[in-house]
Amino acid sequence: MDISSNNLDNVEKDPEMDLSSQYHDTSPYHARNMVGALLPESEKVFGCLDSGLSLEEIHEMALHGTLFTQRALLSRKRFWSMLQSRYFKLPAWALDELVEAYRCGPHSREFISLLYVHYALSDRFTFDFITRDLWKKWSLQQVWVSSDDILKILDDHAESEPQIKTWTEATRVKLAGIILSSLRDFGVLEGKMKKKLVKPVLPLNAVEHILHILTAEGVRGSDVLSDPTWRLFFCTEDEVAHHLQHLALKRIIHFERAGRTVVLQTPEEWSEQP
Question: Disordered: where is this region (predicted)?
Fold first, then answer.
């Protein structure tokens, strides 16, 4: 399914998003992920895209309450704006692959995994928290996670990210709780009161999707194996290599690895600017 770029031009811009990268948020830390994983809303939107509706049509349905069921218009606008910043700014190929993954089922790992990837990539604080702090816990086999972990990180970064000092304690606590709940919805944590790290499933379509992103961003060779994006799924370099070998078996890519020497060839169109 080809989603016209004209549709993308009709959605509202998020002034907080740094569009210097088409995939990674590179802006200063924000208390952006305050509305959760938005899985029911994502399922509805991508179901509409799969049925052939344009983003402009879906936008109108969401704001008028025929798609999103929240009573307050402000809430519906806020949810749409967040979905836009996560998914609708993406190049056409990435959005097309999200729609294709939806066809595996709205609750399938193929679909949820791609939603999770872009949920994390669209907010630098969330991405850093998962790929640095949760990755470190996983590596040390420290599986328990709490809001205090996020609150400590915010305190530790208050000097390098001075805007954090302007956030109220209530904002920090709410942000921490919502991020953890979202990660539970995406399958990275389990438990309600006490949350425990679990290794999220990484389907082959998500492997291909991440590799396509890295290729488009100019990551090459052995740097692909060590890129922190794979840590969203708590993958070691050896595990990444194993996943890439599966892509190679399907003749999607060419991949060889001998020690630190990596030969990786991806489709030429992956390197082209969208």
Answer: 1-22
